[in-house]
Amino acid sequence: MSDGVDDRELQMYIAELGRVGGRLHREGLAVGEKGALNIKQDWAKTWSGHPYFPALPRAVSYDRRAQGADAEWEIGPDKDRPQGALGNIIEYGTVNNGPIPGGLPALDREVPRFVQALADLGMDVLSGD
After folding, report:
1. 3-11, long-range: CB within 8 Å, 24+ apart, which pairs?
2. H or E segment and range at residue 116
3. Rg (CA), the chain
4. Average pLDDT for residues 36-65, to the nearest whole number?
5. In terms of domain of life, where is this protein from (predicted)?
6. Which distant-in-sequence residues (6+ apart) come within 8 Å of 35 by Cβ?
7. What string of H, E and C letters represents the secondary structure of 50-99?
8. How far apart are CA 31 and CA 12, in angstroms?
């Protein structure tokens, strides 16, 4: 306050943001985990019921990598699972077979839910709920 400006409210707000950071991180990871699960399940559902690759839907999985405050999820067919190596052929097609896209459509369907969940989390944390 050396320049005559009263910044006590701003300092209290900054302190409060520091306190809620842990909750945002923890619950934000849960939102990301749920989004990854939704995409995985949607993608697998798209590929279900095909007579030539019955095991491929079970090859769709996801991995989370987190470091500090950063986290990312990689979602898609696991080549080490039965029929998982067929994933890129089925997803993108070949010269002789059309694609059966599952990944991008699943992501497109999840984005609005994910964004809404993050917005709800932010509002809950900032309102003290």
Report:
1. none
2. helix 103-127
3. 21
4. 97
5. Bacteria
6. 73, 110, 113, 114, 117
7. CCCCCCHHHHEEEEEEEECCEEEEEEEECCCCCCHHHHHHHHHCCCCCCC
8. 28
Name the more confident of 89 and 69. Answer: 89
Q: In this structure, is the dihedral angle defined by the CA atoms of residues 115, 27, 32 and 67, taken in order, positive or negative?
A: positive
Which tens digit of pLDDT belongs to each residue from 9-50? 877 777 777 777 788 888 999 999 999 999 999 999 999 999
Angle of CA points 24, 17, 3, to nearest 5° = 160
**18's tokens:** 């520091």
Work out the average pLDDT over 52-60: 97
Query: Which residues, 6+ apart, have CB-to-CB distance to 39 below 8 Å?
Result: 62, 75, 103, 106, 107, 110
pTM more than 0.90: no
In residues, how long is the chain? 129
